[in-house]
Structure formats: C-alpha cells, structure tokens
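Hi, here's the filled form for the chain we discussed.

Project: internal
Contact: R.S.
Residues: 71
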Amino acid sequence: IRNPAAGGEHEERPADQLYVKPDDLWEVNDVADRCPEIVEQLRQVATETTAAMRAGTEPPALTEVLAAGWE
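And the returned structure, exactly as it came back:
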C-alpha cells in the first residue's frame, strides 16, 4: 500500500515493511517495527479495500494519520 505519508508492503511474507515518504526515497530505513499501529492500520485498509473491490463497492477512506502523515 502506498499513500502520501508512507510507503509499505503487506503481502504473504514474514515481515511487513514501512518507509517514511518522501524522506526515505530509496526505502532504506524500514520503520515497521517502530510503528506497529501504522502497520495495523495499513493492514486493515488493505483488507477492507480488497473486500470492497470484490463487492464492487467504494473502498474505505484512509484514517487521518494514513492520509496526512505522522510525526
């Protein structure tokens, strides 16, 4: 999942990855272990978006943190 505040990946793999964008342009500083709440929000959005796409409905809105960023 990519959004204005973060770029990350969540797939069937052992560990999630999360990068602060646009600061970490080359994705060298994985911060997933320091921001578990953000990773969980991204997982939830991914699950809800997949369900919405299958149902042909509107995808969920991003949370304020995911849309605007965090400090």
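Let me know if anything looks off before we file it.
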